[in-house]
Design goal:
It is a single chain. The protein is of the alpha+beta class and 407 residues long. Helices cover 35% and strands 24% of the residues. It has twelve helices and 14 strands. It has helices spanning 37-40, 44-56, 78-87, 90-94, 107-120, 135-146, 149-156, 223-237, 289-305, 319-345, 352-360, 384-390; strands at residues 2-8, 11-22, 25-36, 72-75, 167-177, 189-190, 195-205, 210-217, 243-246, 259-263, 280-282, 363-369, 372-378, 399-401. Helix 3 crosses helix 5. The radius of gyration is 29 Å and the shape is elongated. 29% of the residues are buried.
Length: 407
């Protein structure tokens, strides 16, 4: 049953109506005429009836929307990465970073804040479950991460036998602007353009799970750097020599003795490239062309989704902070990949960009009625419930007092 208001001439009339189905069609039947709407306003008998009906329906609270103050939109999709953080051993791995260093702030909370913001947006949006962090905590956190990369890797992957083989080695360049002159000699600071260009070497399995990462100066990057990185990762993870994947065109001497998938020079004969996509060159004979193309797409995906893009405008980049930022990207990729795998197991494949858009559509309108704060849930995108379901998160009621929010 429901209340239906109809208009006749200049007046409006209220009726109690029930819906029913007859011969496959929905029909309505008027059960009670309540009268003209303007006559019902302030009617004591109607008010007593309404109170009794609410009592029978066990309505706990009635909000007078006319007394509500202005609302504020806040996003709550950050709860997803809070949940994933609890499921992984990232928090435990970060304990090693501050074991011998005293910090005046919550280091792991700041790491989670930076990772969550990195995965969701670089803008100064308001997120419900992630409190704002002062900028000086950003600096100190990146300084600590920049000094702890290898230790974090070892803590995250203690059992190297579980790594899926073979392994890819992605070569992904990145540029940092708005840089400080302090301590950037090893990364080859460009004084004329006020920027640092670096080469990121990322090791993943064929499912996109990130295992390790190193960075070198882009301009001085050469075979010795590549051999050094591969040797370290092979030793730490007990893996065979990885397949080098790059979208840059390098001399043959750089990739000598490695299996590789790379961009092909313009003048490369068609006989030396794959049959699927002219422009991808490889010396691998054992992989199918579609697997080679998938490897190349993993490189593109990592470069777009988990490499430095928009960065916090207040940060002045030093060498250690640049290294720390890459560790941050590394940790973000672990959480992002874990969420993608959960969705894939549920039969819901999605790109990081689609996940980001869906999570950012989860919003509350926060407002006050008198002195009491309330949250009004705004409907998100159609894909948002699938993400919440994959993590066992039940969406909150449409409107609730803020203190009653549980997820």
């Amino acid at each position: 049953m429901f209340i239906k208001v109809t208009k006749a001439g200049k007046n409006r009339y209220a009726q109690v109506v029930r819906s029913f189905r007859e011969n496959g069609k929905i029909k309505h039947q008027v059960l009670l005429n309540l009268g003209r709407v303007d006559n019902l306003e302030g009617d004591s008998g109607m008010q007593r009836m309404a109170v009794k009906l609410m009592d029978l329906a066990q309505v706990k609270e009635v909000i007078d929307i006319n007394r509500a103050g202005d609302g504020q939109i806040v996003k709550w999709g950050d709860i997803v990465y809070q949940k994933l953080w609890e499921e992984t051993n990232i928090s435990g791995a970060l304990d090693c970073c501050t074991a011998e260093t005293k910090t005046w702030f919550d280091f792991k909370k700041t790491c989670l804040y930076l990772i969550t913001r990195y995965l969701l947006t670089a803008e100064e949006d308001s997120y419900y479950f992630t409190a704002d962090i002062p900028a000086n905590q950003f600096y100190r956190t990146l300084d600590i991460l920049g000094s702890s990369r290898e230790t974090i890797e070892q803590q995250l992957f203690p059992d190297s036998q579980k790594i899926l083989k073979p392994v890819l080695c992605l070569l992904v360049p990145a540029t940092f602007k708005n840089t400080s002159l302090e301590s950037l000699t090893q990364l080859d600071y460009d004084y004329s353009l006020r920027r640092v260009q670096v080469m990121s070497i990322v090791f993943t399995d064929f499912n996109g799970r990130v295992l390790a990462q190193e960075i070198f100066s882009h301009r001085r990057f050469g075979r010795a750097n590549l051999v050094q990185a591969v040797k370290r990762v092979r030793k730490n993870f007990n893996i065979p020599s990885p397949v080098i994947v790059t979208d840059q065109v390098y001399e043959t001497s750089l990739l000598q003795d490695f299996q590789y998938i790379s961009s092909a020079p313009v003048d490369t004969p068609p006989s030396e490239v794959t049959g699927i996509h002219y422009g991808i060159k490889t010396n691998i004979k054992t992989l199918r062309p579609e697997d080679i193309l998938k490897s190349y797409h993993l490189l593109e995906s990592y470069g777009e989704d988990y490499q430095p893009g928009k960065t916090h405008p207040s940060l002045q980049w030093t060498e250690r902070r640049i290294r720390g930022h890459f560790v941050l990207c590394f940790l973000a990729a672990i959480l992002g990949n874990r969420l993608q795998n959960k969705l894939a197991r549920a039969g819901k494949k999605a790109s990081p960009a689609r996940i980001r858009e869906a999570l950012n559509s989860l919003q509350f309108a926060r407002f006050r009625v008198g002195d009491r704060p309330y949250l009004l849930r705004v409907s998100g995108q159609e894909f948002s419930p699938e993400i919440l379901k994959s993590l066992g998160i039940s969406p909150p009621h449409s409107i609730i007092p803020e203190e009653d929010l549980t997820l």
